[in-house]
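debug: dumping io for the single-chain case to check the tokenizer round-trip. Nothing else runs in this session.
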Amino acid sequence: MTRVAINPAILRWARERSGLRADALEHRFPKLDAWQNRKLQPTVKQLEKFANATRTPFGFFFLDEPPVEQLPIPDFRTVGSEVLESPSPDLLDTIYLCQQRQEWYRQNALLLGEPALEFIGSASMRSDVIVSAAQIRQTVGFDLNARAETSTFNDALRLMFETADQAGVLVMVSGIVGQNTHRPLDLAEFRGFALSDSHAPLIFINGTDTKSGQMFTLAHELAHLWLGESGVSDVTPAASLAARAGVEQWCNAVAAEMLAPLEEFRAEYRRGADLRKETDRLSRRFKVSTLVILRRMLDAGGISREAFQTAFDAELKRLKAELARRKESSSGGDYYATTAVRVSDRFARAVLASTWEGRSTFTEAFRLLGCRNVKTLETLGARLGMTDFMTGGAV
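debug: decoded output
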């Protein structure tokens, strides 16, 4: 039985990094205290199980000192005015997975001779917010009337995903790490991130958020791509009046203008109406969060800053309670529809096409799409309308 000499500091670091309580781990690993006090050394099998439980790369346990992990992209998340530290394994692994997918798609696009997307990095923080929002809306195809005519927020969000996809942006939405349902993403840690690239721009959205919240995150991250900026965001729709970093402030303003243009908003806004009823009405009209509507009311001069903050805080509390109730009653849904959303239609189609043309292996396709067998790939392709392509016909 091979035992491994481990620095106890790394065991403690792994536990703290995982966010798991000490008593929960001690229940699964009764000898953990002895390992940490150097009274006993874990076996290789025990260490592997501990690594899996704490979501720690196995090789880290052989370091002399705990590593200092940093996000591989700029971090715009804040609590108040403080920058957050110590990203969770779930956030790190989600970014790494998306970076792998992005790199594959970039190489595939270059191989096929696809042109660079001119809108990536086409704006700066000196750019006019209203003009930039209009340019993004026009390029991506966010037609206000089309969105307003959709029946539900879910339909409006799906429309936004489709138009962004058609513009060349990989939009991936998930509430878990990869395909692991035992690793839910924490909305309190982040709402989304953007990975800027001229051939493979990617936006990831935390799927545990509300549909209207996901809309704002998508718009916010698109603004990041227009700046040519990668980064992680915890942006709340129509964020409060607290000061934020310059990039986030600009992206928030552009996102709000993109979803609810102030000129159109003023034309629809009934200032003398009951605040609650008017907020709900305008939310349905523009198909955006009530938080965005409250911020637009402030921008339009319809409510005071004090009234805005009071209403905003109350609405945020209500939405959090509603989100918690929905999570309790949610189900897994359709596997193939969920997979297409998690990896984006555009990415899934590219991987499947490359696989059926023989440029990629089935093993690589399984890894990139989270599928386990050829039959699943075939069914996914059929759901994406690629049956003729996979059987040798025209797409």
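debug: round-trip ok. Residues 305-329 form the longest helix (25 residues).
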